Amino acid sequence: MKTAILLATYNSKEYIGEMTASLLNQSDGDFVCYVHDDGSADGTVDIVKELASSHPDRFVILEDGRSHLGAKGNFMHLLRSVEADVYFFADADDVWMKDKVKRSKDALFELMDSCGNDVPCAVFCDMKVTDEKLGVTHESFIRSIDRDPSYHSYQEIIMDNPAAGCSMCFNRACRDMAVFAAVPEGEKLYKKTEELVEMHDAWVLFTASLLGRVEAIDEPLVYYRQHGDNEMGARQESVSQKAGRNVGGAIAGDLASKKKAYYDNAKNLARAGLLLQGIDEDKRRVLKGFVGLDKISKPARIFFLKNNGFRRKKRSLWIWLWA
User: Fold this and answer.
1) Residues 6+ apart with CB under 8 A from 94
2) CB under 8 Å to 161, separation ≥6 — which residues?
3) The domain that contains 123 carries what CATH number?
4) Domain count for the chain
5) Eight-state DSSP code of residue 64
6) Which residues pair with 36 in a beta bridge?
7) In this predicted model, what pLDDT tens digit does every residue of 198-227 receive, in sequence order?
């Protein structure tokens, strides 16, 4: 089976050498890494070209003149462009542990054995959070952001996606549904789904959970580097810090707008899900109800969210009250 690692780069010169070295050091080397650069101006492309020249069986550069797509757009472009049986997302500033590919593929194949190759399946692992020099600052990314790897139903992903893209591995059926299943009416409808979703990783994991299966590998297989230029990061807050942030937001008058933005993004993910084919009627009902929360009373909203599995590891009541 063909395995594709999708590596999106942008001004990644400082860290990409360590990342690609960790790929070459994988215990399972049966993969091709496809690289698409988003308009780097720091020499990243030269490094990638050298890799593709010295390891042509491992690194392929997609050179199509497209750039400045942003992280989501770059990864989605890679996903549309590459044909494979198994997919990984990779960030240029992380380092993968030696068994990341093998452990992820083993877990994915086990999942596919139980439900079939034609069912969208995805797995994700935990990660060790590090500083710029790969000094470990937290042993568990998932715990550091106060989430639980077992919370990966489609409703829970809508409320709090537990997985970073670089921790994910998924099958062709998942990729095809996320990229092409919403386009029976043509490219325009696909573009609508991509515009609706905030990030590529949540969309892929949500697609697998909604139409197939998701499982977690509750062990770190990635060193997740944190530095000043992270597109997304491992935000760590204590309860008191979170409370202080909310109080500060209330005083500044922007707390309500932040909560609205949170729900707008969540509803847009549900709207994108409704464009997919093959959703059973009960899930379609739940998604439609979530999108239409503002049409019912506050008590009814809380009842709907609680009774339809929209929850987080902690403080679900606060999330329900924000609706």
Assistant:
1) 15, 19, 127, 166, 222, 223, 224, 225
2) 201, 202, 205, 206
3) 3.90.550.10
4) 2
5) S
6) 8
7) 999 999 999 999 999 999 999 999 999 998
